[in-house]
């Protein structure tokens, strides 16, 4: 963790926080922290800055924090992602959060296995846990907004048009399409399919109902967890 | 697997192959293949094309193959990568292979934990296994060249200058450096550090001995498995 992320409940005074649990363990085992050490800290949803460790034992850590820097800007991106398999979902959530995606929509698709929707990793608390790990990795304090859409057609027809309005709408899909644009200046709505890709009906509906144009990233088929950072790094 | 990758030993005639083991299992369990099915195939190190399943049972599969297409071009890239932790190494090898990196050098760095060098995943056969998975994913037949350099300084001083000669030499490193260039036209040598990054001495030696200029990818700190596809997608 490259940033010690603090939540409201950690504050025991205006500039004083008290930690236990996972973050305390990390301070001991990974940072091998000692009283007096200075660490990068951030307030979830708020500012970042420096914390000074004023007390540390097996039960608790106390820090005096000084928060004066804004978090990095979010990518102006709504990512529409066909639900990946559970193990990949965890890593993709961390990546999405670390790379600064503003909004993530996990959506069904014909090639998403039905069993994927049963995973406990889709529970709100489990999603939040992975997003927090991504923020700690990348040094950010602002969680992406995540929503879940179990039905593709009503989402794309009824809600995606408003989400995508005024943005550059793109569907990542291998095939005879224009190359994914580079270094765009405007906000983007990007749809990335499941393993095996979107089916033609889905590509068409994304285009017709919500204006998302198919773009490709070359002839190599990438896993979702590789395609996500590759497409994001190319777009922004 | 998006490509059934065939090795010399699989061929029982000029256009006839016989498979067992992992690939047979995959044909049964994932493809649910049946006699007569047509599959994308490739010959390791050679051409790609189509295979027709002419026999299939619990013990073997036989295919008639027709190979007439070249594999996708490699990225003109030598990637110098500080050895990642073993679990991440496996995934990064797959990514490197899937994205078409021509040459990979796994190198030591001050912040690489010594224990990482003990992993069985560094054995030649284990590396090859992950690279093959990457080729099968991306539909490629040509393995990247992989070499292992356990001592940073002699590698950078004595061998890297020749590897990097005539290429655009870059070190990915967070900090007050120019942004990583986009869509370059020439071959690239790119050094990516370990978790925690290169130390200043290493960044300097890469620059002084081998001409690799530090470049950054924004203020967010990415995991190696995210930074690799992000940097590659931006460069090429």
TrEMBL record, chains A, B:
EC annotation from Swiss-Prot or TrEMBL: 2.1.1.193
Domain of life, per lineage: Bacteria
InterPro entries: Alpha/beta_knot_MTases (IPR029028), RsmE (IPR006700), RsmE_MTase_dom (IPR046886), tRNA_m1G_MTases_N (IPR029026)
Subcellular location: Cytoplasm
UniProt-listed Pfam families: Methyltrans_RNA (PF04452)
GO CC, alphabetical: cytoplasm
Principal EC category: transferase
Keyword tags: Cytoplasm, Methyltransferase, rRNA processing, S-adenosyl-L-methionine, Transferase
Primary localization: cytoplasm
Its biological purpose: Specifically methylates the N3 position of the uracil ring of uridine 1498 (m3U1498) in 16S rRNA. Acts on the fully assembled 30S ribosomal subunit.
Entry similarity comment: Belongs to the RNA methyltransferase RsmE family.
Protein name in the entry: Ribosomal RNA small subunit methyltransferase E
Organism whose genome encodes this protein: Ectopseudomonas chengduensis
Lineage, opening ranks: Bacteria, Pseudomonadati, Pseudomonadota, Gammaproteobacteria, Pseudomonadales
